[in-house]
Design a protein that fits this description.
The complex is a heterodimer. By secondary structure, chain A is an all-beta fold. Chain A contains no helices and eleven strands. Chain A is globular. The N and C termini of chain A lie far apart (35 Å). Chain B is 0% helix and 55% strand. The N and C termini of chain B lie far apart (41 Å). The model of chain B has no long low-confidence stretch (mean pLDDT 94). The chains are: A mainly beta, B mainly beta. The interface between A and B is medium-sized, with 30 and 30 residues.
């Protein structure tokens, strides 16, 4: 089955620690996205990538980093510079360069600072 | 920039009654509009989209949406609500970004609660 896989489902981070969230897709999509979801705030864009080895900052990129070394993979690192990382993180993908196609989402990773 | 707005944080409806979740949009050019549903601790699932043609769009799970150009609205509807429809609903548009990309951009979400 085609889809997006995020792992882990739950992640706990200690203060000052970097953690990496995995996102893999087998939909052959060029475009991939990371969103952060907080209660009552909808989805906010962290980073997006249109093609391998290229990525752009979204609205709330500070304290996060990404890489896109393979078409299928778009991992997100939450660094120690992110002061309030507790949130639900969603990865998505879509066909690049079209306005009228939908995005496909993974099941999310819930990150908690302990 | 293209954007959507969902004026209601929460909608309550009794099971069996019709439901409406509201969305208004602001776009330049042709409006391409989407609805997604999110169940607790899960990702978003695509429900339906408007591209062109009929103003009434049918989607998954018995949902439909009515596109109204004069009111710049794209409300989600269902004739008879089920308790299992209780979830978070997002209206969305794809906003143009540099490099030819169209970024999925979402409203704040509306929590639908269907009471037995």
């Amino acid at each position: 089955d085609g889809g997006i896989t995020q792992s882990p489902k739950y992640l706990f981070r200690k203060e000052g620690q970097n953690v990496t969230l995995s996102c893999e897709q087998n939909l052959n999509h060029d475009a991939m996205y990371w969103y952060r979801q907080d209660p009552g705030q909808g989805l906010r864009l962290i980073y997006y990538s249109q093609i391998v080895n290229d990525f752009q900052k979204g609205d709330i990129a500070e304290g996060y980093s990404v890489s896109r070394e393979k078409k299928e993979s778009f991992p997100l690192t939450v660094t120690s510079a992110q002061k309030n990382p507790t949130a639900f993180y969603l990865c998505a993908s879509s066909i690049f360069g079209t306005e009228n196609t939908e995005a496909f989402f993974g099941q999310g990773t819930r990150l908690t600072v302990v | 920039a293209q954007s959507v707005a969902q004026p209601e944080d929460q909608v309550n409806v009794a099971e069996g009654n019709p439901l409406t979740v509201k969305c208004t949009y602001s776009v330049s050019g042709n409006p391409y509009l989407f609805w997604y549903v999110q169940y607790p601790n899960r990702g978003l699932q695509f429900l339906l989209k408007y591209i062109t043609g009929d103003n009434l769009v049918k989607g998954s799970y018995g949902f439909e949406a009515e596109f109204n150009k004069s009111q710049t609205s794209f409300h989600l509807k269902k004739p008879s609500a089920l308790v299992s429809d209780s979830a978070l609903y997002f209206c969305a548009v794809r906003d143009f970004a540099s490099g030819g990309s169209y970024i999925p951009t979402f409203g704040r979400g509306t929590s639908l609660i269907v009471h037995p």
